[in-house]
Input
Amino acid sequence: MSFKINDSITWVGKIDWELQTFHGDEYSTHRGTSYNSYLIRGEKNVLIDTIWRPYAGEFVENLKKEIDIKSIDYIIANHAEVDHSGALPELMKEIPDTPIYCTKNGIKSLKGHYHKDWNFKEIKTGDKLNIGSRDLIFIEARMLHWPDSMFCYLTGDNILFSNDAFGQHYASELMYNDLVDQGELYQEAIKYYANILTPFSKLVENKIKEVVSLNVPVSMICTSHGVIWRDNPLQIINKYMEWANNYQENQVTLLYDTMWDATKKMAEAIAEGIKAANPKVNIKLYNTSKSDKNDIITEVFKSKLILVGSSTINKGILHSVAGSLEQIKGLGFKGKKAAAFGSYGWSGESVAIINEELKKAGFEMLDEGLRLEWQPDKEGLERCLELGKRLGANI
Ligand code: FEO
Output
């Protein structure tokens, strides 16, 4: 499949409807994804990025239907991660001398992945590649989200090729932001930001300011995943500015795992207390062993307060809670509050462990946490309710 964006630019990527997980099993892709590659034709022919390795053969065959690949003058590798560079080895077998433009870290990464000495051309921010009547201007985007990441901007058409930034793991044949379901689109865009870009929020903010200060018109943002932003493309830039600035909604999320429902009953009673004290706050409960881990992270991203609960097992916490805490710690959320809870039978370490992990993750702890022995009785449930009310009044 290919798709004409305008007279000179064609999308030559792959829509992957089947993909269920990305980055190994680290990121769930309920709506599949796409790997977007773009062919610019003109006085010079340019290919921007390729696609993931399993589809390399298909990619090169499709590209041959569009163009004599020997007439591709330049390849731009905005990012070396294998979902965008994976078809390069197959392509370079046929055009081994074609120059590949990328950052210094891009060269390092591509060599690290493929161990090939291709004809690399190192670029820096502000460098221009003339392709006839138009230029490609390069903007390094270090750590958005890898050290090698970069954007490029096509003058004349005024298109920003942003690679992963502003992307979504979202398969759609409709191709453009204005044609798809807006709820689905934004759910995938915020999930992408929350799970991938949160640690780099300061850099996101600075990079957007840098791009905006160039004062160039942007008619479209062509990302490397999901749909192209053509209708009011600045909307996603504005959203990123909001998300990058310690984003939170009026939301509290309780995440827990439970062995015999005692910790679950605690979660529900705490939620009831929060609601009693703060009826307008949006309260959500997730069992970490039953709900999708990346969807939970998206809810944490939207929250001002999280409560984390676990039964104690073998002097530790349940593995699904430990997994979520590890993700939360790695993402480095800022400006959020937290508290812990959990039931135990004899040793009862879970609350102390969760407190410690949440502190390490940078959360402000609003309470020492609540641990209850065995199943909560009437008094125990009352203590949960009271904790909820205290927290609800405090946010
Ligand atoms: Fe879509 Fe960082 O790869």
In short: Residues 79, 81, 83-84, 145-146, 164, 224-225 surround MU-OXO-diiron (CB under 6 Å). The first helix runs from residue 56 to 66. The mean pLDDT is 98. The domain at 3-243 is CATH 3.60.15.10 (Metallo-beta-lactamase; Chain A).
